[in-house]
Amino acid sequence: MKRRIAVLGNGWAFEFSNSILEGIKKASDGIDTDVFYFTCYRFHNPDKSINTTGYRCFDFIDYTQFDGIILLSNLFEDDQALFRVSEKIKQLKIPAVSLVRKIDGFSFIHVDNFIGYYQLINHLIEKHNVKKLAFVGGIKNDVQSEERYNAYKKALAEHNLPEDEHFVVRNTDWSFKAGYEEGLKLFSDRNNFPDAVVCSNDVIAFGVIRAAYDYNLMIPKDVKIVGFDNLKMAERALPSLSTVNTNSEEMGIKEVELLFSKDREIKDITINSEPVFRQTCGCASELTHEQHLHSIKSLLVQDEEERFSTHLRHTEGIFINDDNFHMFWEGCQNFFVTRHEFEGDNFAIMVKKDLVNSIIYDGYEYNDSIKNCDLQVLVSIKDGEKYKPSIIKTGELLPPELEAEGSNIFLIIPLVYKENVYGYY
User: Fold this and answer.
1) Which residues pair with 224 in a beta bridge?
2) CA-CA distance, 174 to 178, in Å (whole number)?
3) Nearest to 125 by CA among 96, 86, 150, 162
4) Beta partners for 34?
5) Pairing status of strand 347-352 against strand 274-276
6) Whole-model pTM?
7) Cis peptide leading into 275, omega within 30 of 0?
8) pLDDT of 51-93, one tens digit each?
9) pLDDT digits (tens, 9 = 90+) for 146-181
């Protein structure tokens, strides 16, 4: 019988989760295992308040249908949702692994945030004679950020270099915007700015690089900038980013191995990290093949963005303009049969049957529960072909036609409006 793994995460760190999924897929190939990646997005309401409704998608999962659960717990931005989900999994006694954040009762996999970062900072000091190092961290008291900050402090102390409080930023988020804003502050005093900026992740580092360019600073001549994570963009960027490789694909492989280990013991596993030296620290000068390719591909980005915007406008028109539900339904199916460049050749859109009934029948009382309810399959496309509409239970997850032999990865994204989850894609 085919095995199933549920992966629970959040969509804001696409490249990280994609690398993890590549490892999970590699470990699942050949052992007849399907992987279901349930992801959601936190967004802002019109009044700027944070909407975490998407996390309710984890409530409609029948966890007993899965042989193991992988929690990308570092991606959860809602601690209450993480607690609710982890408690439910523990009660059901299903094998589970947590990534980065330690949860009682779960096996635990995390990267060594200290050693690779420590080696990278030592390299800046010993190889490139850097004396004034700034640190731009993520969220204060976050485990990953604290471990990286400790590596920074130790490297400075061992080389008798002072820690300048004006060069230490420890309470930002992990975004490009945060890196850019803090970079502008660091470089504002041309008489006293750092020789190097060590950043808690690659995205922050790219923001700092943008700030350096705004001040007409040359990298790495005027300032050296390094990151952490070794995202694909780190290798392709101009200049390429010196960083720390976290071996995230290996983490995905280890997660599957832990779930299906014979002893079923709860284990803690640490994945090694190592520095990667590139252009932003001064260790490489000539453009790589990846950079040449990326410079060519970047010319296509604007065209792709324009096509995607047009696709969204057409999709919005389908969902908004038809007052008659049956006309909308037919239009929706016909639209996606011919236009699914960004959705792929195999996908389905499902909404609660209660929602359909409340639209069709006057006075129908809508039930906002998403547990074990009927789902109306609005659109089902397999290999580019349209299938007849059907009704499934939330526990079934997929229309029968989308099930496939061998090992597969299925992405599940909730359809959210205001405070309700109305279905999923």
Assistant:
1) 196
2) 7
3) 162
4) 4
5) unpaired
6) 0.84
7) no
8) 677 777 787 788 888 999 999 887 777 778 888 888 998 999 8
9) 999 999 999 999 999 988 888 999 888 888 889 999
Phi, psi of 37 (to 5 degrees): -100, 110
Per the document, the length of the chain is: 425
Report how many helices (DSSP H) and strands (DSSP E) the chain contains, helices first. 11, 21
> Of the given ranges (84-88, 104-108, 347-351, 358-362), which has the lowest mean pLDDT?
358-362
Contact 95, 68 (CB under 8 A): yes
229: DSSP letter:
B
For tokens 């095995």, the residue is 3
SS3 87: helix
CA atoms of 16 and 99, how far apart (whole Å): 12
CA distance 117 to 313: 44
Cα separation, 213 vs 224, in Å, equals 12
- Closest Cα partner for 245 from 259, 261, 260, 232? 232
Q: Identify the residue whose tokens are 């397999």.
A: 382
Bond preceding residue 239 cis, omega within 30 of 0? yes
The tokens for 288 are: 């790589």
168 has which bridge partners?
135
Structure tokens at 183: 């970079």
**CA triple 144-89-35, angle to 5 deg:** 80
